[in-house]
Amino acid sequence: MLHHISFGVSDLARSSAFYDAALAPLGYVRVFEHETAVGYGKEGGGDKLSLKLVSEFVLPGDGFHLAFAASAPDQVRAFHAAALLHGGRCNGAPGLQPHYGSHYFAAFVMDPDGYRIEAVINGATVS
Fold first, then answer.
1. CA-CA distance, 94 to 109, in Å (whole number)?
2. Angle at 51 between CA 48 and CA 4, to 5 degrees
3. What pLDDT, in 10s, does the model give residues 54-100?
4. Could you report the per-residue pLDDT of 37-48, keeping only the tens digit for each?
5. How far apart are alpha carbons 60 and 55 in whole angstroms?
6. Phi/psi at 70 (5° precision)
7. What's the pLDDT band for 127 if we cut at 50, 70, 90?
8. Domains in the chain, please, with CATH?
9. Which InterPro entries does the entry mention (predicted)?
10. Cα–Cα dist 125/37, whole Å
């Protein structure tokens, strides 16, 4: 349904370094770069997440978060570790999240600006 989503960020260099590291284990890379914006997606494809430098921004409320698809639990763990090493804050350690489903394996972080993001795999092969 969605084509892409954009986040306004306070420091583009800091945010892009964070997303470079956090999204790499999930197979997402920078697909475009401009002095005021950076886009992420699959190699050779268009951007699905765009970071845009803004002078002021307001974080979405508690109900908003963005979940990135993973294909294996190790990717979720690597996403979480990389995010924490690059300025993210833990908002839920990697593991099964039975309150979301018996096969929902995810990790939750807050990026340097406070956006809530997640990496998740949800399938019968997860244990």
1. 10
2. 20
3. 998 888 888 899 999 999 999 999 999 999 999 999 999 999 999 99
4. 999 999 999 999
5. 16
6. -115, 160
7. low
8. 5-122 (3.10.180.10)
9. Glyas_Bleomycin-R_OHBP_Dase, Glyas_Fos-R_dOase_dom, VOC_core
10. 37
